[in-house]
Structures are given as C-alpha cells and as structure tokens.
Write a structure and sequence with these properties.
Blueprint: E1 11-16, E2 20-25, E3 34-38, E4 42-45, E5 70-71, E6 79-80, H1 83-96, H2 103-111, H3 115-129, H4 137-140, H5 152-156, H6 167-185, H7 187-193, H8 208-221, E7 223-227, H9 230-241, H10 254-260, E8 265-271, H11 273-276, E9 279-280, E10 286-290, E11 300-304, E12 315-316, H12 325-336, H13 343-346, H14 354-357, H15 363-366, H16 380-387, H17 391-400, H18 403-408, E13 411-413, E14 420-422, H19 423-445, H20 450-466, H21 476-491, H22 495-512, H23 519-534, H24 538-555, H25 561-571
Parallel strand pairs: 9-12
Antiparallel strand pairs: 1-2, 3-11, 4-8, 5-6, 7-8, 10-11, 13-14
Helix pairs in contact: 2-3, 3-6, 6-8, 19-20, 19-21, 20-21, 21-22, 22-23, 23-24, 24-25
C-alpha cells in the first residue's frame, strides 16, 4: 500500500497491536520543540463567532471600526479582516455564499443538525468534487512555512467508528447528506455558479452513505481551533479595566471572557488528518495550539511540553484533565468512541493522582484535619475490569450506569479507621454538590443573574464543602466550583475573589499534575496576575506573570502572541 503520509523527520508512524496507529519520536525531543504545523483539510468558524471573527484567518474583529471590516455582499453573514483574506477564501465561499443566510438554516432545522455541521459537510463536498481547481488559500497554502497538508486520501484512512454511532444519528446524517447532494443536482445552482466550467475530480464519487461516514469521521477526529483574541484584550484593558465606571459593556461571549484572562478560546472547527493520528493520554507529553492572529490562515501546532525520549509515543489530550477517572473515560467513549488505556487511567487508584481528585474524607478522621485520609471513592469493580482490559464489559458499564448508580452500588471503607460507608451516603454528597453547581450555572446562563449565581455557589463552597471537610481539597468538584466563581468574578470585577479562586485552581494543578508545562495552568497564572494588578499588588502580579511566561515559553514559543503579551507586560 502506498505511504501517503509525509511526517517530519522528528517522528514516524507506527502500527501497534494495542493502540493501532501511533506517532513515535525518532530522537530525543526537548520540552518546547515544535513537532509539526498543520493546515486543516476543511474548517469553518463556529456560527456564534461569525459576527466577530474573520472567516479566513480567524482574527478577532469584534473591536474593529466598521469601516475596517469587510462584509460579504452576497450573504451578509461572513466577515473578513482584509481584502487579502476575502480574496483567499472567495474561491470556496462563492459556492456556499447564497446558501448561508437561509438554505443552510432551513436544512439545519429540517434535519435536526447544527448549522455548523451543515456548513462543514458542504465545504467537504466542494473541496473534494472540485479539488483540481484553484480555491485560493485552500490549494496554495501548503507551499507556505512547510505546513503539513492533506487530501481526501488521508481523510479516507481515518477511523470513522460508524458502527458505534446509534441508528438515529446515522439516519439524521443520511437525510443531511441527501439534502446537500440535492443542491448539486439542482440545475439552477449549476447555472448560478457555472459548475459546468469546473473540472470534477474523476476519482471521487460521493454517495449519501459516503457522506454519512465522512460525518462520522469528522465527529471522531475533528479539532476545535483555539485562538487568543489579543485585540479584544487590549480593548478591554484600555477601556474597561482601567475605568471601573466605564459604560462600555462587559464581555458578551466566551471568546471575549477568555481573552480578558489571556486564554485561547475554541472559535473554529477543522479536520486535521495528521493530528488525528496522535493518540490521547490523560498525562500528555505534547499540546496543540491554534495560530496567531498575525497569520493569514488557520493551523494547529503540535509542540512538546516535556522532554520526550527516542521511541516514546507522542500524545495529546482531547479533554479536560481535572476530572474523575470514570468521567474522563466516559467522555472519551461518548465523544471519541474508545476506552482510554493510558498510564494514568490504568494505574492503581491508590497510587494515582486520581486518588485525590476523587477523594472523599472520612467524617471520623476529618476531625484530625488530615487531608490525606481518604475513602475509596469509586467502585473498584469498574477499575478492575479496566485493568484486566475487559473492554466489552467496560463499555457495558459506561452505557448502562450513571456515575451516581455506580457509586450507590459500591461500598466504601476508610483507609485509616476502617469505618464502612454505604454508597448512598457518598452518592447523596456528590449529587448535592452537583445540583448546586447546576442551579448556579442556570442562574447565570439562562437568567443572566451572575450575582445570585455567585452568591449561591460561594456559599456552598465556603460553608458546605470546605468548612465541613466532606470532600478532599483537591477534589474535581471543588475545582469546578472555583473555575466558575473565578470566571464569574471577572465579569463583575471582584478582583479579590478572582485572585482567591484562581489561586486555588493553580494550587490544585501544581499538586496533581507531574507535567507542570500546561497551557491551562499558564492561563491561570495570567488571570491571577491581572487580578493582582487590579488589587494594586504589583510585585505579586510580577511573580505570577513570570510563572506564566516560563510555561508559555515551552507551550507556545517566544514568537507567539500569548508569550509576547506577557513579555511586554513584564517589561513595561
């Protein structure tokens, strides 16, 4: 079989009996080295960001003057930051332009899928049927900066997991495929876009079932593209943070909020076939990062975050890592259709960092104020099955049992005083905390009452969780509470609380993770530094900026805007 992959010399592709395809280091790799850069085979900007992000380079344009923003005259939906970006994308956009405002939305509603899924599949069809034609950036980008690029051949080799998708979803995808292929059979569409003038790729013939499989491939292998909106941070800092009485509105979406804290946000969706071959680990040695706003095209960068020895596997994380073991495994199974077999998930619970993340304190021993005294906090049955690699039984448990049911079914024993607890006691504790988190999130997200949301969650965290010491201070639910309270406190500019809750999260990350070069941790240091500056604690803020910068030098490199922003703040 022809080898279609063109990996850089630093790594090679290996077939493993246990894991399938793996990416292996050809030499020792130092922390901070770029493994590769990759341009997406297809990508779209998420619908919620179409109004504020350039559709080509993904630059944030929400703070630009209207005169500087180029709006597509055809659809009035897509926006560009420059004529260069408009020109680079018009080769592909002209096929979807007149469909963006109404047709895609109608198909979305009729088929029961998102607008984004309609658009990304349509782009897939266009790129493949007319791959011999010049689509500007879509065909020429591979010649710039030695980016890896891919073709339909690469996409076809990716695992679809189509057999794991439920029949209902496959039926929905089938109706979507039918609707989109009907567009190309419409003579009026042919006439409008002069399709007869384009050379169709003879080797590619797409049926509805082909497109169903492609959608399954996209679901199983796609990446969110993280971008840091530096222009919004500058705008917010200059106009809001420095003026507590400013009438300028607070952040209105997640991109703006994350940018205030110098944190990237997922604003686009793409298929990166090379990166899709990198396996997940809950203790990854690499990370992926989106492009800078200064570039004219989107890409992701695979970069080592710790020293990697020759022969080691290159791994990244697909999910939030500060979660319980079963939740991580369950999320990966439900979204990526595999059972995680990484070292962290297979390690004996009592020797793992998960021992603390899931830690429940014994009421009797908690009086000793010993935060290392724990109950066995998850049914050992599931972990024993995982350890023995009985994956069919693991899948059965994941599909049939909620976390609370598995907790109720277990028996818990204090490792110190041997006191026995019923599973229902532990389940009630977990459920009460989760209910409070859900209620406070509802107050903020649905009713816009961030003040009541903060009051409810803060009261629970301070009085119910910490003072009564029912769960370990490193527990994932404590972390989740601190995360919500930290972000919500930014919105109302309560910087003392921002510093407190973000500081708690930093302590958790340092205590739990072996690899300290984590972009999420650097973002927390940045958020804490911003809070400290607003509190007037400049020397402490400088220390936090320095910690952030050290991590970003490894995770981003000195040329990335995430690094440069922090460096400039330290030198000002």
């Amino acid at each position: 079989m022809k080898d279609i992959w063109n990996f850089p010399d630093i790594v090679h592709l290996k077939i493993s009996e246990e894991k399938g395809r793996c990416i292996i280091a050809n030499r020792d790799i130092k922390a901070g080295e770029v493994i590769w850069l990759e341009y997406p085979f297809i990508y779209i900007v998420f619908e919620e960001f179409l109004d504020s992000v350039c559709d080509t380079c993904l630059k944030y344009i929400g703070t630009e003057k209207l005169a500087n923003i180029i709006v597509c005259n055809g659809c009035s939906v897509v926006k560009y930051c420059s004529n260069i970006c408009k020109s680079n994308s018009e080769g592909i956009h002209k096929f979807e332009c007149k469909l963006m405002k109404n047709k895609f939305k109608n198909i979305s509603q009729e088929c029961g899928v998102t607008f984004d899924r309609v658009r990304i599949l349509f782009r897939f069809i266009i790129v493949n049927l007319f791959s011999k034609n010049n689509f500007g950036i879509f065909s020429n980008i591979q010649h710039e900066n030695k980016l890896l690029y891919s073709s339909y051949e690469h996409v076809k080799t990716l695992v679809s997991h189509i057999s794991e998708f439920c029949q209902e979803r496959k039926s929905i995808y089938l109706s979507l495929a039918f609707e989109l292929l009907n567009i190309f059979e419409n003579s009026q569409y042919h006439k409008t876009f002069g399709l007869d003038n384009y050379e169709i790729e003879a080797s590619i013939s797409l049926s509805t079932m082909d497109l169903v499989e492609i959608l399954c491939i996209i679901d199983s292998n796609s990446f969110g593209i993280p971008i840091f909106a530096s222009s919004y941070y500058s705008y917010y800092y200059d106009n809001i943070l420095k003026n507590s009485n400013s009438s300028i509105e607070n952040p209105s979406n997640s991109l703006q909020l994350s940018s205030i804290l110098l944190s990237p946000n997922i604003i686009a969706w793409g298929l990166f076939p090379y990166a899709s071959l990198i396996n997940h680990s809950c203790e990854p040695n690499c990370s992926y990062l989106g492009n800078d706003e200064s570039t004219r095209y989107p890409y992701i960068e695979i970069r080592s975050t710790t020293n990697i020895s020759k022969g080691d596997e290159i791994t990244i994380s697909y999910i939030e890592l500060y979660e319980s073991r079963k939740q991580r495994i369950s999320q990966l199974y439900k979204t990526k259709y595999f059972i995680c077999r990484c070292t962290r998930c297979k390690q004996d619970l009592y020797k793992s960092m998960d021992y603390f993340i899931e830690g429940i304190l014994c009421y009797n021993c908690a009086k000793l104020k010993n935060q290392k005294v724990l109950l066995k906090c998850i049914s050992s049955n599931f972990y024993d099955i995982l350890k023995n690699e009985d994956y069919n039984q693991c899948i059965s448990i994941l599909e049939q049992e909620s976390d609370l049911i598995s907790i109720i079914a277990a028996q818990y024993k204090c490792t110190n005083c041997q006191l026995i607890y019923n599973g229902s006691e532990i389940a009630n504790l977990i459920k009460n905390i989760e209910d409070i988190i859900d209620e406070s999130s509802l107050l903020n997200n649905e009713y816009g009452d961030v003040h009541r949301a903060i009051e409810l969650l803060r009261s629970a965290l301070d009085n119910y969780l910490l003072k009564n010491t029912q769960i370990h201070c490193l527990h994932y639910l404590i972390y989740r509470c601190c995360k919500l309270l930290g972000f919500w406190s930014v919105i109302i500019k309560e910087w003392g609380y921002v510093e407190h809750y973000i500081g708690q999260m930093i302590k958790c990350n340092i205590a739990i993770f072996k690899n300290k070069n984590n972009l999420d941790t650097s973002n927390l240091y940045a958020a804490r530094a911003i809070a400290l500056e607003n509190l007037g604690s400049i020397s402490e803020a400088q220390k936090s900026w320095n910690s952030c910068l050290a991590i970003r030098e490894i995770c981003c490199g000195c040329e990335h805007s995430l690094y440069r922003f922090v460096a400039r703040r330290l030198h000002n």
